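S.,

Sequence below, as promised.
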Amino acid sequence: MTRMTGGEAVVQTLVSEGVRAVFGLPGTHALAMFDALWDAPSIRRVTARHEQGAAYMADGYARASGDVGVCFTSTGPGALNSLAGMATAYADSSPVLNVSSQIPSAGIQRNKGYFHDVGDQLGMFEEVTGWRGRAEAPGEIPGLIHRAMESMRNGRPRPTAVEAPKDVLDAEAFVELPPAASRRPMVPDAAQIEAAARAVLDARRPIIWAGGGAVTASAALTELADSLQAPVITTVTGKGAVSERHPLSIMAPPAHYAPLRSYLADCDVMLVVGSHLSQLDTNEWSLTMPGTIVQIDVDPAEIGRNYPVDVGVVGDAGPALRSLVDAARPVRGERASRADEVAELRRGFRARMEARSPDAAALVDELRDGLPDDSIVVGDVTTLSAWAYMMLEVSGPRTFLYPWGLATLGAGLPMAIGAAVARPDRRALAICGDGGFLFTAAELAAAVQSGVNVVALVVNDGKFGILEPQQMARFRRTAMIDLHNPDFAGMAESFGALGIAVSEVRQVGGALRRAFAADRPAVVELRTRLTHPYDMDW
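The prediction came back faster than expected:
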């Protein structure tokens, strides 16, 4: 045991858990844990400009790395500012730990008028976390953080919150640090695997539906698809679970492409991996699915939630798929290739998208041309992100990040900052609209200050353009969507970033290459309007 303050206990526990970065901004009650970061050189510190941005950064870090992202927030408004980011992580099962301070212990929930007192602060995290806890003494802090890490590294990785009152963070005590929380993949029941293997091996025309839970098992998923000759549909959060250069990657959303809907209905068995078959992915659950559905999910509550399931497999995608790969080994190489079917679907979808908007399709091509091959692309909630999901070919998991479950406007830039910190060996691009970019544009200052060389592509149409067709379809007029915008490229320069403005789609690829070559963050502003890739009434 070592004598230390509560703030030091927070930081030293994170060090022992292998945490490599913390995102946040100091507040009066939280100063002890921010000060303790000075004595933890292994943890990179990124000073955000708003707690919402800090939570988004931690989320981007978690999605890109596959491990826990950590943010520090202060009492009251600081903690509450982070709730949108925590809800975003919760909706997409992203492991984010939010460590916040509290008012002194004697005043909690007594309504005495303490500075930053908001009543039941921890209770406000109840709906956006899988677990949460409060430290009543410095010695409790390591155990609480360890429990949070255990919950996020095992089972469904919902975000967590740990809070400590100011007096607990400031006090000294003898503290014992636990060992790092280990990963213990949930191995499915043998009978469930046997039933699933029987279903997929007996299938004449199997198909795989891969959601966000599948990105943890990309290699096994790809091997199983090859063995079964099962084409793969990926959701937004599952994009890249199978390389989109693979001949069995369909790379089109069935909810918005009639030939794929027919193709899906003509398959006899569908293996669903790590997806709850949500509203937007299934067009309000109207898709006709194959006659037999096998669903793998680490959360038993998701099995059969939205579609009846014939075989449910509760467990982590990795061991479940590896067991199915072993079962399918005897048929590997014996099944007729279905690559030609997939290629025909992809050609047809490409032609449909080009017909809907040649400029938007050309812009996606410019993105691919201007991006290094293994880049991480983060989509904010904007029209170009929808086009990128459908048409931008990515080669692996955790390379296309999108706040799909909550569709949180403004997450793009800070999530990209977090992703770039997690993977400094890769380039990170945030795709933003002009409206969403201004939600969190101040985090460009954080990127400059911390030397995180992200690039933001801002599509500037002078409005919340994604809403215009919805308003016109319903009301035949628009309301409150027109925007007065700054000079985004000039604003970037004022932050110390590189600013590039272009007015033609064909200039984007070159502008992105120039931005990525610069040794600083950059904003590329494209002034244009885009048609949304599909009709919407959400």
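The chain has a mean pLDDT of 95.

Coffee later?
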